[in-house]
Design a protein that fits this description.
six-stranded antiparallel β-barrel, Thrombin, subunit H, 4 helices, single chain, elongated, alpha+beta, 6 strands
Amino acid sequence: MNLIGKMFVILIFAMCIMIMVFAVVIYATHTNWKIRADELKKENDDLVLKIDQFVKQRDDREKKLYTEITRKATAIATLQTKLNTVADDNQKLTAQNDELNKQKQQDISSVILSGQSMEKLRAELEGYRKDFREAQTKWASLYSTLVSKIDEAHSLAMDLAAFKAVGIQLAKDYQDAVEVLKKHKLLPQPELYLGTPPNGVHGLITQVRPQGWVEISIGSDSGLQKGHQLDVVRTLSGRSMLIGKISIDSLQPDKAAAIIIPEFRRGIVQVGDRVEVVSMNEVTAR
């Protein structure tokens, strides 16, 4: 083999080593894009759920604010009416007081001009003073009674407005409940449905505590009661798996504490798992 042949052999050997290094580098930087896509889908689902919760909280706060504004406007109108009434009464009392003062001045002038004796003037003046004091006392008593009655009327008006608002809300809630019962063909007998969670209720595991205790993101506002049982479901690779069951122990409006039922445990319950009411056929179908 001549020199040129040896050079080609060495060149081919160097190229083989370089291609092998490229292959090793490409294999080391390979990324499993399917797993990454599943992770991004789960993050997107969590963000959508949080957005729905924020929208619901915003709507609830707007409704409460509108109700409070309406109540304040009604109270202000009532107070303005009472203020006008009190101002009219005060104007009348002031006019009467001015008239009494004018009459008193006329009487004093008449007594002085008539040249009657000092004793008679003193006696009459004392009588006028006594009548004036009695009038002042009576006016103070009437004014105190007026203020008390105004406060009482204001309190009664506020109570009446509150009772009316509660009555309207109760009537609406009653009508909504009747419509829901008719739509689902249910009987108005609560004892038939004790221990059964409402259809369609769903939430998330927010905390996992020792000794089988968990905290979920839904509570009494979603229709849950103590003793209700919910399924714990987790989505893996596009399929829903039943992890176990929990039993509600204590409730708040927007969250609840529950305990994992040991005999239904099929896996380790984790934060982010869904809680809902499903059957085994539904889980298998998913």
